Design the sequence.
C-alpha cells in the first residue's frame, strides 16, 4: 500500500469523509507543494489543495496530482469545498491546529463533525520514498563537503560566531537552500551546552570544538555533528571522545528493522553509563530527519516505542557534556535497511586535531 492509501484506510476506519491538513511539512509531503500557506483536503477519491493568489501558479506546477483551488478567504472556501463534497465528518490535525482555527472550523462549519487526528501523516512520512531519500542524501553530501571545507578555518583566534558565519556561507555556496537549523559552534567549556549557540568566545589552543549543522536541499534536511580538537588534545579529552565514538558506533550497529527506538537508544546509553558518564548524556540518541529536522518517526530515546522500518532515516548522536569542562558529540545520519542500516554521513570520525 502507498502511504496515502494507509491514510485513507485510517480515514475509513474512523468514518471520516475528509481530512483537512494545514501543517506545512504534511502539506508538502502529500502534494509536493512547497509554499508557505495552503490547506490540503484528502477525500477517499481525491486530493484538493487550497491556496491564495500568491501560490496558485506554483501549486499547479508543484502539485499536479492535487486539484488546486484558489481562495481569498480560507474558511468560506473550505466550507464551500467540503459542502460540495458532501462531507459530514472531517478530521483535523490535533497537534497542529491552533485553538483559534479550531474555533473557526466549529463556528463556520457547524454542520460538520470535527474529529481530531494525531500523527497519521507523520507516521506515514517515516519511511522515505526513493525521491525523498535522494534529496536527503544530497543534503547530507552538502553537509559533508562543508565540514571538509571549514576545517582550515577552525584555529586559535577565530570566534565561535565568525566560524558559524563562515560555515553558513560555505553551506550556501555548496548549494544549501538554507540552514537546517541555527548552526551550533561550542568551544572549550561551552561544549558542555548541547545546543550552544555561537558567541564571541575566541577559540583557543586546547579547546574541543563541537560543530552541529545541516543543509536543506529540496526541502529535506541533513544533520551532522563533529567535535574536533584545536592544536593538541589532553588524555581526558581523548578518553571522552573515544567513549562517545564507541557509543555512536554501537548505536549505529544496533539500528535494524523491528527494533524500537528505546532498544537502540539503550545500547549507546548503557555503554556511556558503564563508563561512569550516564548522567552526562541527557538527551535521546537520535531523531527522524526529513522535511523537518526533528521527526518522531523514528525517535531513538528511552521513551520511544516507535518500531524501526526500512526506509526510515534518523540521526545517531550520543554526547557527553561536563559542566565546567566541555563536551563531545558525534552525529551521523543513517537509513534503515532490510537488515540493519546504511550510514549516509561520510565525514571522518577519528579525533581530528586541527
Ligand atoms: N542540532 C539539532 C540536533 O542535532 O538534533
Ligand atoms: Mn545536529
Ligand atoms: Mn540531530
Sequence:
Amino acid at each position: 500500500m502507498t502511504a496515502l492509501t494507509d491514510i485513507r484506510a485510517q480515514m475509513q476506519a474512523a468514518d471520516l469523509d475528509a481530512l483537512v491538513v494545514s501543517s506545512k511539512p504534511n502539506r508538502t509531503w502529500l502534494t509536493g507543494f512547497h509554499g508557505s500557506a495552503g490547506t490540503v483536503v484528502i477525500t477517499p477519491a481525491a486530493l484538493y489543495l487550497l491556496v491564495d493568489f500568491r501560490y496558485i501558479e506554483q501549486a499547479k506546477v508543484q502539485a499536479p496530482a492535487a486539484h488546486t483551488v484558489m481562495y481569498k478567504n480560507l474558511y468560506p472556501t473550505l466550507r464551500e469545498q467540503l459542502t460540495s463534497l458532501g462531507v459530514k465528518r472531517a478530521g483535523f490535525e490535533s497537534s497542529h491546529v491552533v485553538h483559534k482555527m479550531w474555533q473557526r472550523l466549529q463556528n463556520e462549519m457547524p454542520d460538520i463533525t470535527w474529529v481530531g487526528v494525531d500523527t497519521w501523516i507523520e507516521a506515514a512520512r517515516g519511511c522515505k520514498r526513493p525521491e525523498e531519500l535522494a534529496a536527503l542524501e544530497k543534503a547530507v553530501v552538502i553537509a559533508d563537503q562543508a565540514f571538509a571545507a571549514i576545517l582550515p578555518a577552525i584555529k586559535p583566534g577565530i570566534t565561535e560566531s565568525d566560524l558559524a558565519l563562515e560555515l553558513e556561507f560555505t553551506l550556501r555556496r555548496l548549494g544549501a537552500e538554507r540552514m537546517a537549523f541555527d548552526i551550533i559552534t561550542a568551544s572549550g567549556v561551552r561544549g558542555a551546552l548541547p545546543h550552544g549557540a555561537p558567541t564571541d568566545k575566541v577559540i583557543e589552543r586546547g579547546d574541543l570544538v563541537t560543530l552541529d549543522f545541516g543543509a536543506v536541499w529540496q526541502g529535506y534536511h541533513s544533520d551532522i555533528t563533529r567535535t574536533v580538537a584545536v592544536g593538541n588534545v589532553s588524555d581526558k579529552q581523548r578518553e571522552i571522545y573515544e567513549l562517545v565514538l564507541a557509543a555512536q558506533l554501537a548505536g549505529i550497529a544496533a539500528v535494524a528493522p523491528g527494533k524500537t527506538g528505546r532498544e537502540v537508544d539503550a545500547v549507546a546509553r548503557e555503554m556511556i553509563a558503564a563508563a561512569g558518564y550516564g548522567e552526562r548524556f541527557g538527551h535521546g540518541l537520535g531523531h527522524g530527519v526529513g522535511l523537518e529536522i526533528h521527526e518522531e518517526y523514528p525517535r531513538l530515546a528511552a521513551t520511544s516505542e516507535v518500531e524501526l522500518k526500512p526506509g526510515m532515516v534518523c540521526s545517531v548522536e550520543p554526547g557527553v557534556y561536563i559542566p565546567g569542562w566541555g563536551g563531545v558529540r558525534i552525529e551521523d545520519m543513517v537509513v534503515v535497511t532490510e537488515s540493519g542500516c546504511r550510514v549516509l554521513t561520510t565525514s571522518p570520525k577519528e579525533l581530528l586535531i586541527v
User: Anything to note?
Assistant: The mean pLDDT is 97. The first strand starts at residue 18 and ends at 21. The chain has two domains: 2-125, 130-343.
